Structures are given as structure tokens and as C-alpha cells.
Amino acid sequence: MQKPPQSVDFALKETSPNIGAGAVTGDKLSCTYDLVEQMQYLYVRVVKAKDLPGKDVTGSCDPYVEVKLGNYKGVTKHFEKKTNPEWNQVFAFSKERIQASVLEVLVKDKDVVIDDLIGRVMFDLNEIPRRVPPDSPLAPQWYRLEDRKGNKAKGELMLAVWMGTQADEAFPDAWHSDAASVGPDGVANIRSKVYLSPKLWYVRVNVIEAQDLVPTDKSRFPEVFVKVALGNQALRTRASQIKTINPMWNEDLMFVVAEPFEEPLVLTVEDRVGSNKDETLGKCVINLHAVQRRLDHKPVNSRWYNLEKHVIVDGEKKETKFSSRIHLRICLEGGYHVLDESTHYSSDLRPTAKQLWRPSIGILELGILSAHGLMPMKTKDGRGTTDAYCVAKYGQKWIRTRTIVDNFMPKWNEQYTWEVFDPCTVITVGVFDNGHMHGEAGGTKDARIGKVRIRLSTLEADRVYTHSYPLLVLHSSGVKKTGEVQLAVRFTCSTLINMLHMYSHPLLPKMHYIHPLSVIQLDSLRHQAMQIVSMRLSRAEPPLRKEVVEYMLDVDSHMWSMRRSKANFFRIMGVLSGLIAVGKWLDQICNWRNPLTTILIHILFIILVLYPELILPTVFLYLFLIGIWNYRWRPRHPPHMDTRLSHADAAHPDELDEEFDTFPTSRPSDIVRMRYDRLRSIAGRVQTVIGDLATQGERFQSLLSWRDPRATTLFVTFCLIAAIVLYVTPFQVVALLIGLYALRHPRFRHKLPSVPLNFFRRLPARSDSML
Asked: How confident is the model at residue 770 (pLDDT cuts 50, 70, 90)?
């Protein structure tokens, strides 16, 4: 079932940017920074000043530096009453926007009315040296200040001025001329930055037993359970079956924790004394720094912990220690990979413990070049504007490009590198609109513009892929293209043998198979891991905000969606379409639609029956030839978001509104009732299909169950006769007769169902016993 291609507007486009990859140039830059276009910048590093004169009435001075190039002006912070200030700040002016021929660096004195000029230094742009990494940074020099007439003024300024590119070490922390409208409070929010996800561990708490508990009411049998809390995660055991003061559980509870360990593990032993009333029998606080770490499935040593109880005496909490204790086996699991993203597009599959990591198999390089055709994401001064930045995530490393202010065609030209440990992983690149440009906090969120996923196993090694990817976002009103992002990707493989060997290894670390976690556990732990990662990254400076991290990690991918369910149904039909096509082809052969083909199949069938040792070699040779034939039409581009496959272009508005509804729902009751009824009708159809499958399976069981004594008698008699016939008749003869009977001419067929099918459909199933 071949689907029509999606519209050109949503398609991937191959591009030819002017990048260094593959080009032979004498520039040192092209071998280290070759997946992006070179951007020339004029850098000015303002280090410090000395011996500045006092300008105001008090004789003191509040100095700051103004770096001026044509219409662009960058300003350092000012110091109160300081004649030897230190700024150590870098300014970067984009060469393509430079229109002036002179650079002015002015030292001014901050004043209430008008700022006084202390002195200035002038540079002719033609005289400024060029620096290319890995050359050492240019050493700053002292320059004597001059007044407006060119006469020597009091004071000196230490500066370094040079021409460079975005590969310069000063680039990430520099003030950029294209962000001139951003105030000093917002500068931190627009810089490029590399983040690392926190190191995540699973914590296994095996609650074994407790001893000598002291319930308040001694006349009743205690119903004791243990509640374990770690930060905002809380789990509890079942109530113990042994209703005494020495209860037993032997239950495992799993948690996620991030290094550095900030929260202790808190256990409370509680007694269910009423329907909604629990009494605390004891409490225990365990610091995770003292917990044993294990790398394999060997059990760690168990320990007894004393339980403490708080008793209120005269309105004050007092701690009472007594002989109650609890038996626990706690460990930090280093052999698992803590899943913090959907398993379908994981970017990392290594275990937590570094000792278990395999060597890297290659390097992934990503050049984020530019975007074009971006939509206005917000309104400022009565007009639409977008302040775009990119975020890329692979493994534990997240990168964020600088924000290009007020531009629908931003050019980033930033290049990043990751180590690759498994080729069957996915890199995610998201584009966002910066909602915190001017240091504002609170309700504003960074709006999503779109994202791209690239699976490394679909890339050829050492080839540079340069494509323009459509940025697609699903809204309640439908799918929208918000622009295109241009990327350059290269996956370099260090050793081909190691990479090919990876395909024989299990996808996840071995602990996932030796001690597997349940699907429900994994789902809950993944949700907790996502929360921890988003919380930690939102505390960085500049913060990678919660909404950005959640969009990159696909937090809501497990939520019900009618659109996604339809898409998955058609994906299954697409997979089964091959089998259905083979079935139709066999039906045509059996019905002699093309007599010549049917005769050839007869000959092939007879050869395979007479020489059965040829069956498997023939099958594998056929698969080999299909693979070689398909090589000519192999995909030459990485896969990308497909609106047709996702059923995003044909989704009903109400289905999309349901997909974007909150959980629990926030829609009016009549809409919720309508959706509930629709879901019931779909579930009814699914229920019928499942019931039919169960009926067919039960009919097979009833062949020998004597539920229908006559049917079982017939089947048992047939089995005996078949056993005798097959014992005396060579298997090849039987196979030949069955095959020739199946391929018989339509003249010898009739349209009624066959005898075995009639017999099978008459067998009883347990559907008769269903209420």
C-alpha cells in the first residue's frame, strides 16, 4: 500500500552551502570547523584601565567603556568611584554589517545628566590583524587615551583588537553587534552554551522485613506497609500478609536519582488503622552517599536500620528511640541505562557506571548553519518578530546556539562534536524562539518552532549531508510549517569492524535482560528521569528551560491521540501489505491467471520437493538478489518528519483539539461525553477483533479437548489414519501431492469452502460461556 508523497513544501531539500568540508584550502580553519560557513568578526577585548582622572565635583570617576563602530555601540558595565577598573569583556562585530572604516573605543564617566568623555582610542579597520585558531590569543596592549582633538589625555586602556571567525575562543562569551538591542540583563540568555545532563542512577530498595514494631492499639492485628520517599518520588509496599509486630514484605521499589545526591531516602513504617487513617510506627533516613553501588546482578549485603519515632510531649516534638528495626537491601544500580527519553529515539544506551562503557566507535559532527522562512512567533512594538536559537541533544551533551535577535533568516554557523558509542541512536535538533531576551522571567515561555531527528545508522560513514529540513509543528488547528533549518551532518567511523560488531550486541546493557524491569516501572521511572533532567538543566546559567527540555525529550509522546493511533494502524497495514501481496500472487498462481507462470512454479515446486536440501539456499539467494536489486534505489537522504505518515495533514480538528487537551481534561462536559462515546465505539470494534482472535485460538484447543465429542472423535481418527499413511508413504510424495492439489486448475475447483475449513468453523469456543 504505497502512500502518495507529501507536498513539496514539507519535503527535505538538498543544499550546497559554502562550507570547507571536502574543499582543499590552505586555511587551518577548514579542517577543524569545516561543516559551517565562515563568518568574519571584528573582536574587541576590553581588559582594564588605569590612572583614570576624576571628572565630577567630588574628584572621583564612575568609568565604563563604549565600543563604537558606525551605528553599532557596545557598552561595558560601569564601576562606582574606581580609577583602575577591570572589565575583561569581549565585543564582536559582524563583518558583513560593518559600514564604518574606523573603530572608536571611548572611556566615559557615568553622570546623572550627561556622561563625560575621559578619553578614547581610535583604530583604522585596514590595520587590524587577523587571527586564526589554533594561533595563540592576541595579547592585549596598553593604549594611551586621547581627547576629541587627538591630544594625549590622562589614563591608559588595555585592549586587544583582531579580526577572526566564529571558531575563535572569544566567540561564545562575546557581546554581539546583531544583538545590540539586548540589555545587559538579557545578554546571558542569548549566549551559546554546552550543557551536560546530570548522571542518573536507579536506586533499588529491597524492603525485606521489620522487627519488634510497637503499634498503639495492641488489641488488633496490625496491617503494616512501608512508604519510601526520595525527593518528589514516593512508593509504598503492599500491606504485609504476616499481621504481627514482625511483618515481612520482600518487595523491590525502584527510584531515579541524579548526582550530586541532594535528597536522602526516607522510609516510614505505617499501620493502616482505619479506612483513611494510617499511623506511623517508625521512620528511617538514609543518606545515598553511603549506599553501595553494584555493576552486575550479584546481590549486595543487606542491613538492619533502627527506626525512630516522633512523639509529641507538651506540644513539642521529641524523638524516641526504641528497639524497632527494619531489614533492607539498598543499592545504586550501575549496570542499567537510565532511560530519560523515548526508547524509539534514544541518543544514548550506555550503562550508568563508566567502568562498563565500551570504547567509542566514531564521532558525530553537526554544523548548524542557518534557518529561513521563519514565522513571526511574537509581537513587539506592533510588528511580528522572532529571536531564534537551536538546541541539539545527543547522549548526555546538550548544546544551545546563540540567539539571533529579530531575524526571520538567522545564520548561526556553529559546529559541535559528539563521541558515538552506538550507531543505532538518534540526534535531535530543535529550534526555539527566545522569550527571555530582556531578562524577563515569569509567565513567558520559549515557543517551539520545530525539530529534526536524524538516526545515525541511516547515515553513510564519512559523508557530509547538507540538507534543509522543514520545521513542522502540530497545532490544534493543524500541521504548520514554521520555516526550514539548514544542517550539515557527518558521522565519522573510527573502526568499521567495531561498528559492525555493535550490531550483534544487545541494544541495552545486560542488566535490562538479566533483571528486567516491568513496562509500568520503566514508564514511571522514565517520567521521573525526564523531570529530574529538566529541573537540573533549568537551573543552569543561562537556563535550558523546562518547556525546551520536555519538547526535546518528547515528554507527552505516550498520551492518547486518535491521529497517532490511525497512523500506527496504517503503519501496521504497510508492514502487512507485503504478506498480503504475496498471498494475492499465490492466489493468482493457484487460479492459473497466467498459465506460463503457474507451469514454471509447478516445475520449481517439483525440483524443491525432490531436492529439499535446495530450499534454504534458494530462499537466502532470493533474499540476497532482492537486496542487491534494491541497492540501486537506496535512500540517499536522511529520513525526516513525514506529515503523511503521521496523518498530520488529514487529521480532523476535533481529534487535534483532543490531542492538545490537558490531562485531566479541561474541556466542557458535552465535548468530553462525545469523545468518550467515540472512544467507546472504537474500543468496541477492538474488543470484537480480540474476541474473534480468542475464538479461533479456543477452536484449536477444542480439537483435542472433547468439548464436542463427535468433532474430537473425527479429528483423533483422522490423526491415526494420517500417522499410518505418513509412516508408510515417503514425505516427498505427500508434499508433492499436497502441492499439486493446491495448484490444481480452476476446472477442478469449486467456490464452496474446503472440508477442513468447514470442520474448523464448526468447532466450539468459550464465547458461549461469556456473559
From this structure: confident
Q: Determine the distance from the C-alpha atom of residue 580 to the mean position of all C-alpha atoms in its chain, rounded to a whole number.
A: 35
Exposed/middle/buried for 606, CB within 10 Å: 0-12, 13-18, 19+? middle
- Residue 216's Cβ-count burial label (10 Å; 0-12, 13-18, 19+) is exposed
Residues forming CATH 2.60.40.150 domain(s) in the chain: 40-191, 200-333, 354-553
Beta-strand runs (E) in 231-291 = 233-236, 248-258, 265-274, 277-286
Highest mean pLDDT among 80-89, 341-350, 524-533: 524-533
What integer pLDDT is reported at residue 267 of this predicted model? 93
Q: What is the mean pLDDT of residues 401-410?
A: 90
Kind and range of the H or E run holding 116:
strand 116-124
Output the pLDDT for position 400: 94
56-88 tens-digit pLDDT:
666 678 889 999 998 888 888 888 878 888 999
The secondary structure element, H or E, covering residue 551 is helix 546-552
Q: What is the dihedral of CA 295, 299, 300, 302, to 10 degrees?
A: 160
- The DSSP 8-state label assigned to residue 217 in this structure reads -
Return the CATH architecture of domain 354-553.
Sandwich (2.60)
Secondary structure of residue 63 in the 3-state scheme: strand
**Which CATH superfamily hosts domain 40-191?**
C2 domain (2.60.40.150)
CA atoms within 13 A on the CB side of 456: 29
Q: Are strands 116-124 and 102-109 parallel, antiparallel or unpaired?
A: antiparallel
> Domain 200-333 is classified in which CATH homologous superfamily?
C2 domain (2.60.40.150)
